[in-house]
Structures are given as structure tokens and as C-alpha cells.
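At this stage, I put together one protein's amino acid sequence and its C-alpha cells, which the following lines show:
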Amino acid sequence: MKVTSTLRYARISPQKTRLIIDMIRGSNVLQAMKLVQFLPQKAAKIVRKILDSAVANAENNFGLDIDDLKVTQAFVNEAPTLKRFRARARGRGTRILKRNSHITIEISDE
């Protein structure tokens, strides 16, 4: 049984989040939870919450055992970017891109 959990419009860049997602893809859920628990990055805390949500969905909605679960798919897509301007020298302004992410984690007992 495949169970997914998604966070949309996360206020973190996809490039930073992909570093964490690449570490847990294909691993056991318990190992993935231990790994992201002790990583210092902001993305690790966000990924941990999504992983916890996917596990809760699997246990409560489908009655799956946490020991049998594995991260089958995990990916990060780019969400709409916030465009801001900052004052620079000689009356100019430069654009600042504040990137957002859509994070999806799929776990399975197969």
C-alpha cells in the first residue's frame, strides 16, 4: 500500500531541500526518521514533519506497521517564487527571488 504526504508552498528553496530528500530516498522509515532528527539544516525539520505525517497516515488510515515501511519516492518541486526588490547604489533596485517548494514523500510496505 502506497501512502503519500505533501507539503505545498514550503518557504525554503528546492535546492536546499533536495540535499536532505536525497539522503532518505529508498531507506527504511525508522532510519530516515533518525537521520533527519539530528541534521542541523532547516530543511531537515520540515522533512521530518512530512515523514511523520506520512507514517501517521499509514498507521491510522490503513493500519500498516511502521517497521515494514520504506521511503519509496521522495521529491521536491519548485513552487511559485516571491519576487522582491532591494535598494542598491545610484538609485537602482535589484530583484531578490525568494524560492518556495512543494515537497512530497511516498512510503510503502512493499
